[in-house]
Design a protein that fits this description.
240 residues; alpha/beta; Rossmann fold; Ybab, Chain: A; 2 domains; three-stranded antiparallel sheet; 8 helices; 18% strand; globular
Length: 240
């Protein structure tokens, strides 16, 4: 199927900024209402801000909710610079151009990857309380965040979903630069983004309330969803 970008920018531009992440989640749920009757759907949030958006979508679509955690692999001398990423389920994406241009050795790459994996494992345990990750094979996976800047983290999440056997992968974000959305269409089946304002500058400027979502708040939303029958089918065996 040819990837598509679904825009409703003309309907939504007058309503920017979003009130908060819950408001953005309801808007995305409306854009994705065609998936409400699909049984094999799964909403995966990129923590932590994405959980507040995805929670509203999960409720509206009656879709199981969980998280797709992504951690960047930092360059040893410049830890804020990503040379790759690890994602839930063990998927690893390496930017070989960065590795080669900065002459990162295989040993340095391995150490940085191990560090990112340790951080990811900790975050997953905090959010899932040691539950195994959800089964993705054969499912329509809807990946959700509260917005995109470069789209690099979401690209890693999309590739992770494919690597674990997803039947279809849909990216759903409330707001993003148009260029980031265009680049993602080569990775996912569909990209749903109601607003691509320019100039973009930062995700937070398109929300009235954009306070940081704590790990405790994100976990509380997940547990609320799970308590109402929206916990996904999980992989067998203990996590980790």
């Amino acid at each position: 199927m040819e990837p598509r970008i679904l825009h409703r920018q003309s309907e939504r531009a007058a309503r920017l900024p979003y009130v908060d992440r819950a408001d953005a989640g309801r808007v995305l749920a409306e854009a994705l209402r065609g998936y409400a009757s699909e049984e094999a759907k799964l909403v995966l949030a990129l923590p932590r801000g994405g959980v507040a958006v995805a929670y509203e979508m999960s409720r509206a679509l009656r879709a199981p909710l969980d998280v797709m955690v992504v951690r960047k692999i930092g360059v040893p001398a410049y830890p804020e610079l990503a040379m790759g990423a690890v994602a839930s389920g063990g998927s690893v994406v390496v930017n070989h151009d960065v590795v080669e241009s900065l002459r990162v050795s295989p040993a340095e790459l391995e150490r940085a990857t191990d560090l990112a994996r340790a951080e990811l494992d900790l975050r997953e345990r905090e959010l899932r309380d040691n539950r195994p990750p959800p089964k993705l094979r054969g499912r329509t996976v809807i990946l959700v965040d509260d917005g995109l800047a470069t789209g690099a983290t979401m690209r890693s999440a999309v590739r992770a979903a494919w690597s674990h056997g997803a039947a279809r992968v849909i990216v759903a974000v409330p707001v993003a630069p148009r260029q980031a959305v265009l680049e993602l269409r080569d990775e996912a089946d569909h990209v749903v983004c109601p607003a691509t304002p320019e100039p973009f500058l930062a995700v937070g400027r398109f929300y009235l309330a954009f306070r940081q979502v704590s790990t405790r708040a994100a976990r509380s939303l997940l547990e609320q969803a799970w308590s109402t029958g929206l916990e996904p089918e999980r992989n067998g065996g203990p996590e980790g």
